[in-house]
Specification:
CATH architecture: 3-Layer(aba) Sandwich
Radius of gyration: 19 Å
Shape: globular
Distance between the termini: 51 Å
Oligomer: single chain
Bound molecules: NADP nicotinamide-adenine-dinucleotide phosphate
CATH topology: Rossmann fold
Structural class: alpha/beta
CATH superfamily: NAD(P)-binding Rossmann-like Domain
Strand content: 5-15%
Number of domains: 1
């Protein structure tokens, strides 16, 4: 069956590793042309070469950017459109997680995370929307998280940005439908990527270590394989997760029990994650 991405131009942020990299390969397998954005130019160039190998004309182009620099995003969107002449799909996927308690995290660190994970996808979307509205077609995909439905200690800012993405993009899905623009929100559970290694600690440094929850999780390639059929079906809300999905069910249907469970399991959960943290939370 023909993919809905055949001959489409897809702009992927966070394409230098993990979910973005794996999905870039699968977008191209489905006949798309891709624009690869992140900060690590060497990684993007390697992926670009791999994707373009043996093709008559380029199917991948690199656009290096630091997406936390919000003032540059409008110009960046114009450069992205110019690469293939138009954009059919904006895949807002770049992001960083967090390892640290709010009380020990300077506001500047939280502000950076909010800029990168929440404001940047909103700003990019607003920069690309006029182009999609003029063409009366387009698709915006955003990578949120199960954390968009959950609250956990040590993750307050990350929970804040993922709840924010859910609120914004699920609302946008209603607003844009009549304009022929589709919005889809991906909510992954644990995926074995660099996300925990790159997570930002209270000092603003990288966590530098893979959590056991991510070490034993599905790979980004498996995630991609599982998520694409749901994207192609046109679903707005897309969960792909392992048994951690039960936390979402608990949170929605038994919120009191959820709080008791988090209190009970938080200490062992945090022990693995909080290499830099010192407070012993009273949960
Ligand atoms: N893995 C999971 O368990 C999981 C679960 C739920 C949701 N997610 C979400 O999935 C998305 C992708 O994460 P991942 O798991 O694939 O982790 P990853 O391998 O760490 O990928 C993160 C991507 O974001 C890019 N990025 C980070 N900061 C950036 C910046 N300032 N400017 C531009 N690009 C930036 C990184 O590229 P550079 O470092 O080269 O800039 C990288 O390509 C994130 O939004 C994450 O929150 C992941």
């Amino acid at each position: 069956m023909k993919s809905s991405f055949q001959d489409q131009v897809v702009w992927i942020t966070g394409a230098s590793s993990g979910i973005g990299e794996a999905m870039a390969r699968d977008f191209v397998k489905r006949g798309a042309q891709v624009i690869l954005t992140a900060r690590r130019a060497d990684r993007l160039k390697r992926l670009e070469d791999e994707l373009n190998a043996g093709k008559a004309s380029p199917v991948a182009r690199v656009l290096v950017a630091d997406l936390a620099d919000l003032s540059a995003l409008s110009g960046l969107a114009s450069r992205a459109i110019a690469l293939f002449g138009h954009i059919d799909v904006l895949f807002n996927n770049a992001g960083a997680s967090q390892r640290g308690f709010a009380i020990e995290t300077p506001f500047q660190v939280e502000e950076h995370l909010i800029r990168l994970d929440l404001l940047s996808p909103i700003a990019l979307t607003k920069a690309i929307l006029p182009h999609m509205v003029t063409r009366r077609s387009g698709r915006i995909i955003v990578t949120s998280s199960l954390m968009g439905d959950l609250e956990l200690p040590g993750n307050a800012t990350y929970a804040c940005v993922k709840h924010g993405l859910n609120g914004y993009f699920y609302s946008l899905a209603f607003e844009l439908k009549s304009l022929g623009i589709q919005v889809q929100v991906l909510q992954p559970g644990f995926v074995k990527t660099e996300v925990s290694v790159s997570a930002i600690t209270p000092s603003g440094e990288r966590h530098g270590k893979m959590d056991s929850t991510h070490e034993s999780a599905m790979t980004a390639e498996e995630f991609s394989l599982r998520v694409f059929p749901k994207i192609e079906q046109g679903k707005v809300s897309i969960y792909v997760a392992g048994k951690e999905y039960f936390a979402v069910i608990l949170r929605h249907f038994f919120p009191g029990l959820y709080r008791v469970a988090v209190g009970k399991f938080a200490k062992s959960y945090l022990k693995d994650r909080m290499v830099h943290a010192n407070p012993d939370p009273k949960l």
